[in-house]
Write a structure and sequence with these properties.
Elements lengths: L1 H5 L3 H16 L11 H10 L6 H8 L16 H14 L10 H5 L5 E5 L5 H9 L4 E6 L2 H14 L4 E5 L2 H7 L6 E7 L17 H7 L3 E11 L2 H12 L4 E3 L15 H8 L5 E7 L1
Helix pairs in contact: 2-3, 5-8
Length: about 280
């Protein structure tokens, strides 16, 4: 029993200890040498502060912005093979230094950053619709990275480069200022529970990191099928004087953006879909 109890988290241990003494003893007693090991452990738990030093440090230093949530997923042999065979051509490895995007793509052309491309279907379609532009597509989900590489090879799409890394770190470390003509973030996780809103990607601190990388007249295009998140997106982007809304509120879906699987799912659930397009002054 003691071994099982020791595996429980601190809050659960304290709850069990309080329950034991409130129902059996009435109040926590002083340590008793005649108590069995589990009961002595219960007393020790009650006499231990709720928060460890590491917990306190975590409270003082909130977690940094992340562009992703790690998801488990099975990578098919075809997806892994697509990465192995095509990464030298399509892949771009993370580096702790600014990257020359023109050199990475082999030409001078407007560069668009796409954060979170899912399985890559919409990304490849946009790249085909806008062949005059280059797309830096970033995600951490292995099967999605493999599928995008597979689609690019099958359709001979040359204006996409793929990165499997945290986009926030890429923005902070690899992208020179004023190197982007556009930024696409389509259907990021809405984290619909209120206590999880702090995990949402589209918040002022992250947008503040993006803006220096955007050229004058460059744009940020967001899309979501979660209305409350759309309201937050509108509020966040509107709070930056450097940005100007291209619509009165939400924009018509641009012709280059195809319907994604997230959009189709949202429509099936009766959700609306909201696009926001802001330009940098």
């Amino acid at each position: 029993m003691l071994a099982i109890y020791s595996e429980l988290t601190k809050p659960v241990q304290r709850w069990l200890a309080l329950l034991y003494y409130c129902t059996i003893r009435g109040s926590p007693p002083c340590p008793d040498l005649n108590l069995n090991p589990l009961k002595r452990h219960l007393i020790h738990t009650l006499q231990t502060p709720d928060m460890t030093q590491s917990d306190a440090q975590h409270e003082q230093h909130p977690r940094s912005i992340k562009s992703f949530v790690l998801r488990q997923g099975h990578m098919t042999p075809a997806q892994q093979r697509a990465i192995d065979e095509n990464w030298p051509r399509f892949g771009l490895d993370f580096q702790h230094a600014p990257v020359d995007l023109n050199a990475a793509f082999g030409r001078e052309a407007p560069k668009i950053l796409e954060i979170g491309f899912g399985m890559g279907t919409a990304t490849t379609e946009i790249a085909k619709r806008l062949p005059e532009k280059d797309f830096l597509a970033i995600d951490v989900h292995g099967p999605g990275v493999g599928n995008l590489c597979k689609l690019m090879a099958e359709q001979d799409i040359a204006n996409i480069r793929v990165m499997r890394h945290d986009a926030v770190e890429v923005v902070e470390t690899m992208l020179p200022d004023a190197c982007l003509s556009g930024i696409h973030i389509f259907f990021p996780d809405p984290w619909h529970k209120k206590r999880h809103h702090k995990r949402r990607l589209i918040q002022a601190p992250f947008v503040a990191k993006l803006l220096p990388k955007l050229k004058s007249s460059g744009y940020i295009h967001l899309a979501t099928d979660w209305e409350e998140y759309a309201v937050q997106m509108l509020e966040v982007l509107s709070s930056f004087p450097e940005l100007q809304n291209t619509a009165e509120a939400y924009a018509p879906t641009p012709a280059y953006r195809p319907e994604t699987k997230f959009e189709a799912r949202g429509k099936r659930l009766g959700h609306g879909v909201w696009d926001l397009v802001f330009e940098k002054r």
